[in-house]
Specification:
The chain has about 425 residues and is an alpha+beta fold. Helix content is about 55%, strand content about 15%. The strands form 3 sheets. Strands 2-1-5-4-3 form a 5-stranded antiparallel beta sheet, with helices on both faces. A hairpin with a 5-residue loop joins strand 9 and strand 10.
Length: about 425
Amino acid sequence: MRRRVLLLVAATTTLVLVAFLVPLALLVKNVAADRAVQQATVEAQQLTSLVATTDRASLAATVRKVDAGSDYAVSVFLDGAVLGAPADRSPLVALAEGGTSTSGEVAGGRQIVFAVARPGSTAVISTFVSDAALAAGVPRAWLLLGALGVALLLVSLLVADRLARTFVRSTVDLAAVSHRLGRGELDARADISAPGELGVVATALNGLAGRIAEALREERETIADLSHRVRTPLTSLRMDADAIRDPEVAERIGTGVDAVNRAVTEVIQQARRRGVSPEGATTDAAAVVAGRVAFWTVLAEDTERELTVDVAPGPLPVALAGADLEASVDALLGNVFAHTPHGTAFRVGLHPRPDGGARLTVDDAGPAMPAGRHTGALRRGVSGSGSSGLGLDIVRRSAERTGGEVRLESSAAGGLRVVVELGGLGAR
């Protein structure tokens, strides 16, 4: 934008200067020529009385003296002789001998002739003004005009550059604020003192940012309130679990209730911190995956599922909060139990990636996903089994926050294989 403003101002100023300086330069040239012709005419007219009354010998001496002190060639044509500066008998001289005084262009300059009546004859006074004399002072004047034009052009460009800087700076500030808002920095605000319409845009952008912040705050509070309502039935369920006489069953149900209670607490906290993992969060994936697999092992035994665990020894740091990784593992394993028949074997693997982070895989031996459904299953709210369709989306968003991804493939056992790439520190 700044360059375009400078080009526009340069073009406009150049056109104005050309329209102003070219006629002025021509005027200077014409004025210089008129001045030289007028001066030569005055000098020639001063000889008129002498030519009319002085004898030839005295006249010759006078004309030579005048020619020597003049900037122009002064000649007198008298009875076929040329007195003063040597000159050819041009058509203008012949015309003047007939009694007509005139001037005109000749080779190398301009000639001015005057007819002077003498007793018994007509004399002709001729003054020749060369092209150099006609243009005396013109090159210097043109040089000054050119310097003035360049100076005016530079001044206009300097002023335009300062104005363009103001506009460009305001535009860049607006773009920077927009990018900050896009990154979730909802406290970013634009400078409303920007010039002209940019100030109006800045005001509108600030209003939009305020409205977005207010809407998100209301949404987070609503999610937190809804999540808190789940605590009442959880408390009742916990009391029922404590009343079970079988200690093993009571402990297992109590553990599950505590896990749900922790998940609800994390939902409330996450909703209040804008729903994203804190910047710089890191977790040992090996410890988290091993812990969640141990929790689901009991349910796997109850449903007669063969579980194979292949978790590399830690630590395996990934750029994700522990609660988010736990939610992702629970979503993957919960899908296995929800969408495969009892007795279906599955396998959980976790290994380090060459470039940092970890690769989490969950394979099952259940029914294979139909062709073409792998991509659609990762879209939020899409499910082919009547569920909410949020499980895999939770996993996908968690992986992408670390700079990784999620892929759905066919497992070696004929079922589904979910591959979760988790980036390490510095990956995002």
